[in-house]
Amino acid sequence: MILDYVGVKEINGSLIVLDDVDHASYEEMVEIHLDNGTRRQGRIVQIEGRRVVIQVFEGTHSISLGNTRTHLIGRPMELPLSEEILGRTFDGAGHPIDGLGEIFPEKRMDINGTAINPVSRVYPKNYICTGISSIDVLCTLIRGQKLPIFSGSGMRHNDLAAQIVRQAKIANDESAQFCIVFAAMGVQKDVADYFRRSFDESGVLQKVVMFVNLANDPVIERTLTPRCALTAAEYLAFEKNMHVLVVMTDMTSYAEALREFSSSKGEIPGRGGYPGYLYSDLASMYERAGMVKGREGSVTQIPILTMPNDDITQPVPDLTGYITEGQIVLDRSLEGGGIYPPVSVLPSLSRLMKDGIGAGFTRADHQDLANQLFASYSKVMDARSLASVIGEEELSPNDKRLLEFGRLFEERFITQGSHESRSIEQSLNLGWELLSTLPRSELDRVDPKLLDEFYKPKNLEASDQAKVAAAVDLSPEDLTSQVKSFNEAQ
């Protein structure tokens, strides 16, 4: 028997309360009909005996205690899915907003989903090429991985997100089997237009599924957006055998919406005012990334989040770091120096890259090259700290050479255009060119056989070689002679 419940007991923010409700289920969807003919959606978020609390997605404006009829649907929120979703744009609750009509679904899936059973997981291997050297070489993104980007307010993380969507491809370039699900939460309308226009102009829109929650959309809808995106990704990956990259920006907006929702329910706040279940809530989404036995597809996540006051110890980045397999950190001082993307190399890492690079995946020298670039750039930081104390003129020739290497590394390796895509071979070769500015004796993280093959100082551009020579008080000819003599001695 279908019942409609007339009127409501209480209204509190985006929540309404009904009494004397039988056979209700947690997360069950409801339809709310107003006297003026409008219809709104909600879901049950709390049950206390026969009292239920309903979260209204469109908000409770124009709702009074007596002008509603509430109908329980009898099922959780489901997303209609088919291959038609590729190239389409939806709002945060999964409704089409591109003017192309409704989706004719092959299947409907519960947006809440579940984490992948560890027994059914396949260990992630092979990589996704983003075309960005600092990510592909030093923090390689592996299929099935969850690799967040930690940014700060006002930084160019939106540009980086758009560039990753435009350029990303799987290693063997099976473009027909690769797609992207993009979720934007709490963004301004001009930012949403920028994303849509950028994808359209670059020709990738037909392999992108977009979920957009604007800043003026209901806050509650923001809590649905990443779950709708991940449900679409799971369908494409595990039903259609596609490799799916999910880019979500900004997870801090999601967490703030969750905090507001938790506060309206009267829950006791935890650290930073966020609900005490923030960790498990984030984990319920992040753990939906991975690969499953018997299925060819994969779900890879790049959640982007902004750190309040650039503080990485804030609850959202802190808990995200515990759940995910590494992080890419953006540095405000690098961005202030005109470097894009401003990837801070030393605190960034990808914990799964060791099993998805090397011979058979990228190139045999990849791991050694990455290790050496990390080690050399770490020495650059030490040399800069010393120079700030005693002055650059008092540094040893070796430290001056390191400073010049650091400058070249930031200007030529980290820096690249927002529409510049580099293949993995180009990025690796560029790394070797920069390492060739250092004496061979400094390259202590590389196998000697790889040094014999790839260490070639003569490949350095003449202009850069002159800068290195000037930094260490040598003429270019003397520098070349010393390097040649040293290599012969080795």
UniProtKB/TrEMBL annotation:
<feature type="domain" description="ATPase F1/V1/A1 complex alpha/beta subunit N-terminal">
    <location>
        <begin position="9"/>
        <end position="66"/>
    </location>
</feature>
<dbReference type="GO" id="GO:0046961">
    <property type="term" value="F:proton-transporting ATPase activity, rotational mechanism"/>
</dbReference>
<keyword id="KW-0378">Hydrolase</keyword>
<protein>
    <recommendedName>
        <fullName>V-type ATP synthase beta chain</fullName>
    </recommendedName>
</protein>
<dbReference type="GO" id="GO:0046933">
    <property type="term" value="F:proton-transporting ATP synthase activity, rotational mechanism"/>
</dbReference>
<keyword id="KW-0406">Ion transport</keyword>
<comment type="function">
    <text>Produces ATP from ADP in the presence of a proton gradient across the membrane. The V-type beta chain is a regulatory subunit.</text>
</comment>
<dbReference type="GO" id="GO:0042777">
    <property type="term" value="P:proton motive force-driven plasma membrane ATP synthesis"/>
</dbReference>
<dbReference type="InterPro" id="IPR055190">
    <property type="entry name" value="ATP-synt_VA_C"/>
</dbReference>
<dbReference type="GO" id="GO:0016787">
    <property type="term" value="F:hydrolase activity"/>
</dbReference>
<dbReference type="GO" id="GO:0005524">
    <property type="term" value="F:ATP binding"/>
</dbReference>
<dbReference type="InterPro" id="IPR000194">
    <property type="entry name" value="ATPase_F1/V1/A1_a/bsu_nucl-bd"/>
</dbReference>
<keyword id="KW-0066">ATP synthesis</keyword>
<comment type="similarity">
    <text>Belongs to the ATPase alpha/beta chains family.</text>
</comment>
<dbReference type="Pfam" id="PF22919">
    <property type="entry name" value="ATP-synt_VA_C"/>
</dbReference>
<dbReference type="InterPro" id="IPR022879">
    <property type="entry name" value="V-ATPase_su_B/beta"/>
</dbReference>
<keyword id="KW-0375">Hydrogen ion transport</keyword>
<dbReference type="InterPro" id="IPR004100">
    <property type="entry name" value="ATPase_F1/V1/A1_a/bsu_N"/>
</dbReference>
<keyword id="KW-0813">Transport</keyword>
<dbReference type="Pfam" id="PF02874">
    <property type="entry name" value="ATP-synt_ab_N"/>
</dbReference>
<feature type="domain" description="ATP synthase A/B type C-terminal">
    <location>
        <begin position="355"/>
        <end position="455"/>
    </location>
</feature>
<dbReference type="Pfam" id="PF00006">
    <property type="entry name" value="ATP-synt_ab"/>
</dbReference>
<dbReference type="GO" id="GO:0007035">
    <property type="term" value="P:vacuolar acidification"/>
</dbReference>
<feature type="domain" description="ATPase F1/V1/A1 complex alpha/beta subunit nucleotide-binding">
    <location>
        <begin position="131"/>
        <end position="350"/>
    </location>
</feature>
<dbReference type="InterPro" id="IPR027417">
    <property type="entry name" value="P-loop_NTPase"/>
</dbReference>
